[in-house]
Amino acid sequence: MLKTTPLHSRTSALMQANQWRRWAGYSVASSYEMTHDREYYAIRNACVLLDVSPLCKYRIKGTDALKFLNRLVTRDVSKISVGGMLYTPWCDSRGKILDDGTVAMLAADEYRLTSAEPNLRWLQDNAVGMQVEITDVSDQIAAMSLQGPKSRDLLMTLCDSPLGGVKYYEFVNTKIDGADVMISRTGYTGDLGFELWVDATKAEKVWDAVVKAGKSFALQPAGIWALDVSRIEAGLIMLDIDYTPANKAMTDAQTSTPIELGLNWAISWKKGNFIGRKALLAEKENGSTIQFVGLEIDHKEFERQHHELGLTVPYPFMAWRAVIPLYVDGSQVGYATSGVWSPTLKKYLAFGHVQPKYAQPGSVVTIDLTVDRFRRSFNAEVTKLPFFNPPRKKDIVGAK
Amino acid sequence: MSKSTNNHYDVIVIGGGHNGLVNAAYLGKAGKKVLVLEQRHTVGGATITEEVYPGFKFLIASYLISLLRPDVIQELELVRHGLEIMPLESTFVPLTNGNYLADWPDHEATRHEIERHSKRDAEAYDEYARVMRRLAIALRPLLDMIPPDPTSVTPKDLETMARVRGVLNNMTRDDFHLLSRLMTMSAADFLDEWFEGTALKGTKCTSGIIGTFMGPRSPGTGYVLLHHYIGELDGTFRAWGFARGGTGALSQAIASAAREAGVEIKTNSPVAHVNIKNGEATGVTLENGDEYSASIVVSNADAKRTFLKLIEPKHLPDDFVSDINRFRIASPACKVNLALDGLPEFTSMPKGKEALLRGSIEIAPSIDYVEQAYDDAKYGGWSRKPFMDALIPSLLDPGMAPPGKHVMSLFVQYASSDLDGGWNEEKKAQFLGIVIDTLAEHAPNLKKILIHKHIMTPWDLERMIGLTSGHIFHGELALQQLFFLRPSPQWSNYRTPIKNMYMCGSSTHPGGCITGAPGRNAALAILEDRP
């Protein structure tokens, strides 16, 4: 049986289209309305509330908590202090990525790690001999994501904390309608946004308070389809889609490294040893065989070919998740893994993995798409990521 | 006393409306030294957002975007310059019998709504949508074309005629016959061939009369219906979008693209007349006497204002002057904006379907209703029960109003630009009262939540923005003044009888709405003459 999240009573009451999906064994909304368009536009122009409770969450507590985490993940966790968070991938000893998520420093000896997949065994196996207690708190903590340009204004009507000064990847502990809530300036949309972490028993209460206040800010509940469009615009990878976690891969060829995925910036070479460091260092020195890139598919030509056949253009409004080969001069040089029409940028975006010599912005590869019933080849230009990165994502405003 | 400024420009564009800005941006990108002169304090012309009442952003003229050419968005990189467009996905039509009609962004949901009125119409609706889409795809290339002179045998005109012929060749014979009929029919007759439901025909006919001083039973409104179908948003035809921040944000995006291309924009600079020497335009003189010289002068103003006010008739051929004189430009359109302390509650809107407030709201319950509204106005009056096309922008972009408050934008017709006895403040207030009363019949809480009301009548659109008769399309989209006849035969290719003088406003092909097409096409024509 699929499980439901602590917010199911609320999300199911909002569901109009019976469009549910599975996420880590939980049932969550794909889109509440018949189409996800309005949910998407609200992410970029107003604000949305998403139930992201299915994220796996681990409490990591003990005198060796920092030591443990710095051994586990690729980034330097000592760089954050209480109230700080960071995004990081983590790898196996071959430097192959296992998962990616966030680390929040809750207290001097306590952190919270989130992940897409269950990681308890991997965490415990790597904590051997350390003074650290690892607890799976996934079911105890509900999470909702409030994203969009109006998200801060909305939250500021609900709590006293000076959210205007909370920086990207910082969090504060506050109260909403009497319930303790941790509000972090994080999200998966590349926009101004926050995530609210709350005891599962209080989740409905907090949700209701946000929804009520949201009436003044055109708040819209949103599902995964809308989120998927925005995460591609924001250049954010997804496990199982843009990479296969090393513990699921059947062959070496199916695995990826953080360097291949463009996460070099999230690897700290100076912090000392961590799992996979040796292999990653070798890759850094010898070069990668494949490189993650942003692609802009020539939509104008895609359009033209449809009009030539007297057809309207089937815009890919819903993100596709498929492995599609990429070519240069008829030889395969890589593959694409996600793609979508960006209603904001008015461009057909995709994520690709290509041989490094084609990874420079401006390089052109081709991708095959069908026009009506015919296979046609279209140019796709390598573009810098993220595709969309508005200043409001990281801005700070004075206390109101 | 006139003072001459030293600066000489390659091009001066009179009027910073959206087409003037598009024109300037293209010419700037082509390396020309361009100056845009705008009479008001801000650019945009009728494509503006104004805070008429503190905290509330009003769409005092144009309000939606659909026909904006995808080429203009891409080539001027308007997204990079700040343009964001959100689709209006639904339509809600409150009816007088307590019922309603709705169009949802989902095909099946819409079919279910129409089935409540007529199962037959629900099926016909699919086919109707398909046929209109096919016609729209076929005609789309014409919008981006510099109209040919069909009587001319120059290679250029012959080539363009061949392209027109190509457009027609791409259609099936049935579609071509249908198109020919639609072009000459009234919207009402055309819809009668498809549907039986009064409400469905009522709402569909409005595309045929928006901005037009004709009723749904007037021949020619069939074309206007189609004109509004050619608009597209991300490939969806007949889709209307709202620009974040209002239509003014679009003007600002185009202006930003123009400035980046080196264009100089001067506001508060009303042009008094075009300077003409030996039949050639040499520059302009402002109302304050300042003179600017240029090799080319482009007018974004409508044809009547350009050729009957900014240019002395003695510089123009008589037959051209009489063409412009008879150019049909009487207008029935008003724009109303309301600041609201809450949302209007429509008695006919079922509980649980409040999402419909985020789309279009149309007061057009039947063709008879709309035709009656026209009848009331056509002898110099106004509708006792006006047709309205409303939306609540603050539900899409909460930045349009303070938190918890809303703005409502209402496109209203008919109120004649040639009102008996002329317009004045008292008459404005009277008509505004009628608009509020009519809307309140459907949403009785309206007067209770009303904070501020504002109307732009044809009189105001002319006084403030400079549209002759306040016509939002710079002249009727009537068959006798379309394509190679717009605004005058032989002078439909953005050129004018005066050397070095061009037109780039909606009085030229393909006409009104926020399209950017006249601006872009005119730039292409200018660059053909002066590469």
Question: What does this protein look like?
Answer:
The complex is a heterodimer of chains A (400) and B (531). By secondary structure, chain A is of the alpha+beta class. Chain A folds into 3 domains: 3-54 and 138-233, Probable tRNA modification gtpase trme, domain 1 (Gyrase A, domain 2, 2-Layer Sandwich); 57-137 and 257-284, 2-Layer Sandwich (Alpha-Beta Plaits); 289-383, Aminomethyltransferase beta-barrel domains (Elongation Factor Tu (Ef-tu), domain 3, Beta Barrel), CATH 2.40.30.110. Chain A is built from 9 helices and 20 strands. Chain A has a 6-stranded mixed beta sheet, with helices on both faces. Chain A has a 6-stranded antiparallel beta barrel with strand order 15-18-17-16-19-20. The longest helix of chain A is centred in the middle third of the chain and has 12 residues, at 203-214. The mean pLDDT of chain A is 96. With 531 residues, chain B is an alpha/beta fold. Chain B has a domain at 3-46 and 67-84 and 245-328 and 471-529: FAD/NAD(P)-binding domain. Helix content of chain B is 35%, strand content 21%. Chain B is built from 17 helices and 20 strands. Chain B has helices at residues 18-29, 70-75, 107-115, 119-143, 155-169, 173-184, 187-194, 198-205, 221-227, 247-260, 303-310, 318-326, 367-378, 425-442, 446-449, 458-465, 517-529; strands spanning 3-14, 34-37, 50-53, 56-58, 85-88, 91-94, 100-103, 232-233, 236-237, 240-243, 264-266, 271-277, 280-286, 290-299, 333-340, 360-363, 382-391, 406-415, 450-456, 501-503. In chain B, strands 1, 2, 11, 12, 13, 14 and 20 form a 7-stranded mixed beta sheet that branches. Chain B has a 7-stranded mixed beta sheet with strand order 7-6-16-17-18-15-19, sandwiched between helices. In chain B, a hairpin with a 5-residue loop joins β6 and β7 (100-103). In chain B, α7 packs across α9 (221-227). Chain B is globular. In chain B, 56% of the residues are buried. The A-B interface holds A 17, 33-35, 37-38, 41, 44-46, 149-150, 153, 157, 215-218, 300, 303, 307, 310-315, 317, 341, 343-346 and B 70, 73-74, 79, 84-87, 89, 104-106, 108-109, 133-134, 137-138, 140, 170, 234-237, 244, 355, 358, 394-399, 403-404.
